[in-house]
């Protein structure tokens, strides 16, 4: 039964709802139309909820289809990364010595006169003027300490200049109690709080709690925007409420203007939590959980809770018992990690007293032995020559004696190899065996991604793009000996895969490589359509 509400226009009882958000009622279609102009900006298929452990999170108001844009948001605050060489404080482009314009009010360097007048710059301009002495930056191209506090200062400025924005920032989690006493806390106290007090002479304006809280808000909530090198920071309002899941249902990307877009990577049903992956979903469970300790929570998602990682055996080690074909995994990966990050003493590592058990012979191997093996293999990867397919193949062959074929280290090197083959001199130069290998690796990793991280559409789209090219090239080669029919089959399959790749990459910004790949995918589709048309026309008519 439809829940009754009151019409947003005339306040009379109403049963119809806005289909976009399911949150606003109307008595008639006319009133809905009338309200659309005002409602458009806030119509969103998610609502804010609260949970005792997670804090605020977003929940779907209605079913959301895979590929739909869940929301698009402008940043509340932007600023340079904490550790950065001098960048323009208007557009965040890297500054080069001799090519800078100084703000005539405060002396901070910019890339252009226009950028000196941008609103983003107001906070540090204001406090530098109050300080009574202009800033003079003379070294470029290496991290500069004066930039460490800019983004925190931009947050603090809102307290006295934009109370509404200040309120939104203060509602965010800062984990002050968890951060207190960590190395990062001490570093921020020295490089940010003390700097703000001494350089800007603001010791009577902002106290330690306020400054350290803003540092925490940035640490927990700021997004690194990869549109420029170096990246810059941006804090968003609603998007900052999205919770983490190692098998997230959404992904984030940025528009060319720096707005954040949240897209559904899978179909999401009404009432589901909206999630993104805060860490790298291609890492193993232990590494992901350690990284997530930076946000001060222990992840308990379905992927972390299942040692087989949804049947993928992504962390499984080969059992070394004679004649055994099984794989070792611990009973659980959900062991507390937060105490280790606060007290990272390697001697505490084995306090978990964990064993890895074979799924076939039930042999138990101590965690310490497995960790040593993983460390050795990890080292092997770090010293592997870059861009060398032979080295990748050697690694895969060697480690297949120790690791499951889908293990994260095997996947990592397989992914690098799949992308490497044909990258430099084109696929036409790759021999038949390696072309087949590229096809198999792309297929396998794309399937694995669908299981482990279905919302990672950027990587899956890129892999499928590579796969379509490898299949088309295979078709071209086979047509030389088997005729156009063989080619038609391959090109048709290649096109099918390319359609998916183009769809997965369609929201990528033109500024980033994936955006350029999306454009190429659209062009290749036209080319393949023409090819399929010509090939079909050249085939003899069926008798
Ligand atoms: C970017 S904030 C997300 C919004 C936050 N819950 C709030 O109330 O403002 C990140 C913080 O949310 C909490 N969080 C996010 N995902 C979580 C999860 N899967 N389990 C537990 N806590 C989580 C953690 O405290 C984390 O530091």
Summarize the entry for a quick read.
The protein is an alpha+beta fold and 543 residues long. The protein has four domains: 1-43, no CATH class; 77-235, no CATH class; 285-420, no CATH class; 428-543, Methane Monooxygenase Hydroxylase, Chain G, domain 1 (Up-down Bundle). The protein is built from 18 helices and 20 strands.
Account of the 3D structure:
The chain has 18 helices and 20 strands. The mean pLDDT is 94. Strands 17-18-19-20 form a four-stranded antiparallel β-sheet. Helix 7 crosses helix 8, helix 14 crosses helix 15 and helix 16 runs antiparallel to helix 17. Helices cover 43% and strands 12% of the residues. A hairpin with a 3-residue loop joins strand 5 and strand 6. The protein folds into four domains: 43 residues, no CATH class; 159 residues, no CATH class; 136 residues, no CATH class; 116 residues, Methane Monooxygenase Hydroxylase, Chain G, domain 1, CATH 1.20.58. By secondary structure, it is of the alpha+beta class. The site of S-adenosylmethionine has 18 residues, from strand 6, helix 8 and strand 13. S-adenosylmethionine binds next to strand 6, helix 8 and strand 13.
């Amino acid at each position: 039964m439809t829940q009754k509400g009151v019409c947003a226009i005339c306040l009379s009882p109403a049963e119809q709802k806005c289909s976009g958000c399911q949150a606003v009622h109307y008595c008639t279609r006319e009133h809905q139309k009338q309200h659309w102009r005002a409602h458009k900006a806030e119509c969103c298929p998610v609502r804010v909820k609260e949970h005792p452990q997670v804090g605020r999170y977003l929940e779907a108001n209605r079913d959301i289809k895979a590929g739909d844009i869940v929301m698009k948001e402008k940043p509340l605050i932007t600023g340079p990364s904490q550790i950065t060489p001098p960048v323009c404080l208007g557009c965040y482009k890297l500054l080069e010595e001799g090519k800078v314009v100084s703000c005539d009010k405060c002396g901070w360097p910019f890339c252009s006169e226009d950028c000196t007048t941008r609103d983003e710059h107001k906070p540090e301009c204001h406090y530098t003027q109050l300080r009574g002495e202009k800033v003079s930056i003379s070294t470029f191209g290496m991290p500069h300490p004066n930039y460490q506090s800019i983004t925190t200062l931009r947050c603090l400025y809102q307290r006295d200049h934009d109370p509404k924005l200040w309120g939104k920032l203060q509602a965010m989690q800062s984990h002050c109690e968890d951060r207190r006493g960590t190395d990062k806390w001490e570093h921020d106290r020295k490089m940010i709080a003390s700097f703000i007090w001494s350089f800007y002479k603001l010791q009577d304006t902002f106290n330690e709690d306020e400054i350290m809280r803003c540092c925490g808000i940035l640490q927990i909530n700021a997004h690194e925007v990869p549109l420029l090198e170096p990246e810059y920071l941006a804090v968003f309002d609603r998007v900052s409420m999205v919770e983490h899941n190692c098998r997230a249902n959404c992904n984030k990307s940025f528009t060319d203007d720096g707005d954040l877009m949240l897209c559904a990577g899978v179909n999401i049903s009404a009432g589901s939590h909206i999630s993104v992956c805060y860490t790298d979903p291609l890492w193993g469970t232990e590494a992901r959980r350690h990284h997530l300790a930076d946000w001060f929570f222990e992840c308990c998602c379905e992927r972390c809770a299942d040692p087989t990682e949804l049947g993928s055996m992504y962390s499984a080690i080969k059992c070394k018992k004679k004649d055994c074909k099984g794989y070792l995994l611990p009973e659980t990966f959900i062991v507390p990690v937060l105490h280790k990050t606060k007290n990272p003493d390697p001697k505490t590592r084995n306090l978990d007293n964990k064993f890895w058990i074979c799924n076939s012979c039930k042999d138990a191997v101590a965690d310490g032995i497995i960790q040593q093996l993983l460390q050795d293999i990890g080292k092997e990867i770090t010293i592997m020559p870059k861009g060398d397919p032979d080295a990748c193949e050697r690694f895969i062959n060697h480690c297949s004696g120790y690791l499951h074929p889908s293990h994260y280290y095997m996947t990592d090197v397989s992914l690098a190899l799949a992308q490497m083959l044909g990258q430099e001199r084109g696929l036409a130069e790759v021999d038949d065996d390696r072309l087949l290998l590229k096809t198999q690796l792309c297929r396998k990793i794309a399937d694995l991604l669908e299981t482990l991280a279905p919302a990672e559409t950027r990587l899956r789209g890129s892999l499928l793009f590579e796969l379509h090219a490898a299949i088309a090239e295979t078709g071209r080669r086979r047509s030389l000996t088997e005729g156009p029919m063989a080619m038609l089959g391959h090109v048709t399959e290649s096109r099918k895969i390319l359609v998916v790749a183009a769809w997965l990459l369609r929201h990528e910004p033109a500024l980033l490589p994936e955006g350029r790949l999306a454009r190429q995918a659209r062009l290749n589709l036209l080319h393949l359509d023409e090819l399929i048309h010509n090939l079909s026309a050249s085939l003899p008519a069926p008798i």
